[in-house]
Amino acid sequence: MDIRAQLSMSFHLDKCIGCHTCSVSCKNVWTTRRGAEYMWWNNVETKPGAGYPLTWEDQERYRGGWEVSGGSLRLKLLKGPGKIRTLANIFFQPNLPTIDDYYEPFTYDYQNLFNAPAGDDQPVARPKSLITGEFMEKIVLGPNWDDDMGGSPLYASNDPNLKGLSDSQKDMLTKFHKLFFFYLPRICNHCLNPACVASCPSGAIYKRGEDGIVLIDQDTCRAWRFCVSACPFKKPYYNWANGKSEKCIFCYPRVETGQPNACAHACTGRIRFVGALFYDADRIEEVAKAPEDRIVEAMREIILDPNDPRVIEEARKAGIDENWIRAAQESPSYNLFKKWRIALPNHPEFRTLPMNFYLPPLSPILHNAKSENGGTFDPESVEFFNEIGKMRIPLRYLANLLSAGNEQAVLESLKKQMAVRLYRRHLRMGDISESQAKAALSSVGLTTQDADDIYRLVSLSTFQERFVIPETHREIQTNVDPRTMYEKRGSVGFGVKKKEFLGRTW
Amino acid sequence: MDKFLFGGMPYIFLMTAIVGAIWRFRSNKYTWSSQSSQFVENKTLFFGSFPWHYGIITVLLGHILGLFIPKSILLWNAVPVRLYVLELTALACGFLALFGLLALIYRRLTNSRVKALTSSWDVLVLIVLLIQVVTGLGNAVLYRWGSNWYAATAVPWMWSILKLNPNVDYVANLPLITKTHIFNALIFIGLIPFSRLAHFVVLNPYKYLVRPYQVVRWYRRGGPTVNIVQYK
Prior knowledge:
By secondary structure, chain A is of the alpha+beta class. Helices cover 32% and strands 13% of the residues of chain A.
């Protein structure tokens, strides 16, 4: 057993209102620079939707992630055994998205509003490209271009997650009364089996052993751009001005000191949870090779129980600090993903073993059930609990998005969330009997204690309960010279350390 | 004049290359990048980058091979058919490179995004490369069977430079176009550390073939990179 720690974020999709506060705080902290202005390390997508960059989930086009072929795990990008294809394509990559798949960064010519000569028409601020500095004919794409299902016949209908849905279910994209959508906030998944790391010819990308954060060594990156193609989530971004790839850094300067990530801290809906997980690094390859219907289960197995005395002993042997062990025992991520089994990874079929987890959305279902029954059906009733598969968001869609097509895994999570609601309704309203509520709980394998804990975490939890982030105490490590500890404070955080420069010097 | 151009300048350019590379690598590692512009334009790039790199790398390897095993090349060329095969391959690769280079120059001149990202170093590099490829092809077409006389002129001259005992007599009587080719090559070498040409000397990609997929670094343990697992 090779036990390692991993920081992990979980998202309660039911509570996400798509306000983009997370995206904005991330952008303000990390990517307000030339060459990075098109990057959204954290972005929130409307699902169904084409996403950002357009159709990032379509791995026929981008060939991101891994595939099992002939019993071995291979990067999809390599299209065969050996790594020689990487070097052969180093001069031109057929699978690289271009800026047109994201959007051409732009600003507006605001000055014209003040300087325009007097005339019959109102002056306008025309868009200007931030790459060329020239006026743009029109803006054809932007971050969240298809937000809230905007232009869904053009954009959302290309969502790869719609495969396997019936035509009547696909009607929901265009029929206003039957519309379904929800928001999917996305950051880098800091995978256990990251494809970006595996594809980097320079060896610039690495996973940190201590906390599992995946970073790009900016001094070693040589702009071969393979990480952009290989990551199936399209979370490494190419800085077109500096010729370096950049990605979400899990706000490591913040989490090292026990503060939550900028996105999680800013979240108004309090949908995010951050915690530590222990996993067995010896089993990564085996789990990444698991068949699609078993891969979520296999991912749960690789996460170790931090309360198991044997695991604790192994963790101590591996040099994991006591505060990390304590944090792992109180980790919301562990509870949501493994203990209660209600959170699911995003696209586990890409086989990168992503370490962010999502609670599938429940709320739109209730609405539909109610109207289907002429408004008399009580969505909180026990009958509905048994019919949860007939939901507004097709199970198939959620399964394609969150469990490699395994509908049972999604159903389990939805039923559990519903059972907790029934139980709470019994406690608060009393119109559901105790026996009914307890029957619902036991049918999904939850105890009343679990139900109380789930309710507490997803509804009432405080800052400290949502973000259980152990400090790393870099300052007491021997390789840090105490005299230079603070020298970088207040200096340019990302990119060049010596002087601030935008764009190229060479 | 020849003494200065082919006896002294080689050392100046070689020193520039070596000292410049060390200086830039130590002082400004962050800027060491291939500065790929595929992200902003990838349609014309395909017709430029692929032929250019494959053509020029083959030709360059031929030059390097000639430097180290001139006798074997001459032996190979002793049979006319083999000489024709070698020369035609080299010529084809040269034209492939020229085609690619022209496509790249066209792209840089016409695409507004690429133009906006072009630095004056890029222009300089493109001019040097164009002179190099055109004079190289000129040599091949005008003064036939270069692979033979290369071994008798430029190769011993290069060795005399490397042995710190420059002997310009080997190259003094070469035609002007060949001399241009040689001197421009020296400029190219001197430019390597100071432009995007730096990506030409990075060694990491070759390591990729033998390293395990995953890379893990431990900030606590310091020292070298530790890997997780090598997938089969």
